[in-house]
Design a protein that fits this description.
Elements (H helix, E strand, L loop, with lengths): L2 H13 L10 H18 L4 H10 L9 H7 L5 H13 L6 H7 L5 H13 L7 H7 L4 H14 L5 H6 L6 H13 L6 H7 L5 H14 L5 H7 L5 H13 L6 H7 L5 H14 L4 H8 L5 H15 L51
Helix pairs in contact: 1-2, 2-3, 2-19, 3-5, 3-19, 4-5, 5-7, 6-7, 7-9, 8-9, 9-11, 11-12, 11-13, 12-13, 13-15, 14-15, 15-17, 17-19, 18-19
Length: 361
């Protein structure tokens, strides 16, 4: 990345009032600030896929998003960008954003209106969470998918019963979203459905299910993932390798690291994305080299992977560490809005599974 781009992004971060976290030495500070600056650059790119992906990464980042860049995206022309921007703002639980969520409740697109209800619920209007419950039963598959995703973000275990019912939804993406949301909420339900969907006829479904199996699966899933690692589709193949790593099988992860040095930008993006899933800390040094790529998509995927690997905000994901430092104690979570009309008994939350983290040499 050219120096002027780095400086522009850094100024944007400071202007947003985010500041620099803590006091660090120059080398450490630059190493941690550059990925953030690349995400800021992606937010300003005007390319909807990159904007949406960068914005969504802030849901797992340790540092807050630059509000002066995220808030305008709530009015972007692209529906996915608007939806994710409103969700990211809602996840911050900032009450001063309530007027924005009320305004977006009148958006022309139903899925954005649903996400605005999520934002209102997260900023103190608990009754708005009812919209998420109702959307799970909607005939509109996009609303069902989005509602399942948002319920996972909300963090309210009262939604477990509703999400459990969606494991039998006729749409496979709803099933996968429900299983992922249940995992966010501490439940291990949905594993059998995810396993079945790794054999789905559509390779996009197989890819998403394969990614998710690394989070939900057990060592019994290693043979299945070994077969998927032979897929002719690169996204499925790479997702299987990343999921194997999350389950403790590191035999193939060097392939993803080696592909970071290939001359194919698409391969760089796919490999970086899957390494971000694994939280494999030795990959950070290799990913950092891609931050200098001339291709913004490559830089963005590398920055997203680094931020997700280094984030402490993803306790639900298995973490594969180069060593075994003490796990920091997470702050007590903020109260989550209750969902009216959900007096559904739920099973006790199951702590997320953490794969063993053997020292790596």
């Amino acid at each position: 990345m050219k120096a002027w781009r780095i400086m522009t992004a850094a100024v944007a971060i400071l202007a947003a009032g985010c500041g620099w976290p803590g006091l660090r030495g120059p080398a450490e500070g630059a190493a941690r600030d550059l990925p953030y600056a690349v995400l800021v650059e992606a937010l300003q790119s005007g390319q909807p896929p990159l904007v949406a992906s960068a914005a969504e990464t802030f849901l797992e980042a340790d540092r807050p998003p630059p509000r002066d860049l995220i808030e305008p995206l709530a009015d972007a022309g692209d529906t996915r960008v608007r939806t994710i921007a409103v969700a990211v703002l809602g996840a911050t639980r900032r009450r001063e954003l309530a007027p924005l969520f009320r305004r977006k409740a009148g958006d022309t697109t139903p899925v954005v209106r649903l996400t605005a209800a999520f934002g209102q619920a997260m900023t103190g209007q608990a009754s708005q969470a009812t919209a998420l419950r109702d959307a799970l039963a909607s005939p509109d598959v996009t609303l069902r998918r989005t509602a399942a995703w948002l319920l996972g973000l909300m963090g309210n275990t009262s939604a477990v019963g509703m999400l459990r019912l969606k494991l039998d939804d006729p749409d496979p993406v709803v099933v996968l979203r429900a299983a992922e949301a249940l995992h966010h909420l501490g439940s291990n339900e949905g594993l059998e459905q995810v396993r079945a969907l790794t054999e789905h006829d559509q390779h996009q479904i197989r890819y998403y299910a394969t990614r998710l199996l690394g989070r939900l699966g057990t060592t019994a899933d290693i043979p299945r993932l070994e077969r998927l690692a032979q897929s002719r589709y690169l996204d499925v193949k790479f997702a299987a390798i990343a999921s194997l790593a999350q389950l403790g099988d590191l035999k193939r992860i060097d392939l993803l690291l080696e592909l970071l040095d290939s001359g194919d930008a698409e391969v760089h993006v796919l490999a970086a994305r899957q390494l971000g899933d694994t939280a494999y800390t030795p990959a950070v040094e290799r990913l950092a080299k891609l931050l200098k790529s001339r291709d913004l998509a490559v830089r963005t995927s590398a920055a997203e992977a680094i931020i997700r690997i280094q984030s402490a905000q993803t306790p639900w994901r298995s973490r594969i560490l180069a060593d075994q430092p003490p796990i920091p104690t997470a702050p007590a979570p903020a109260p989550t809005p209750t969902i009216p009309g959900t007096n559904i008994p739920t099973t006790p939350a199951v702590p997320p599974r953490r794969s063993p983290s053997p020292p790596l040499r």
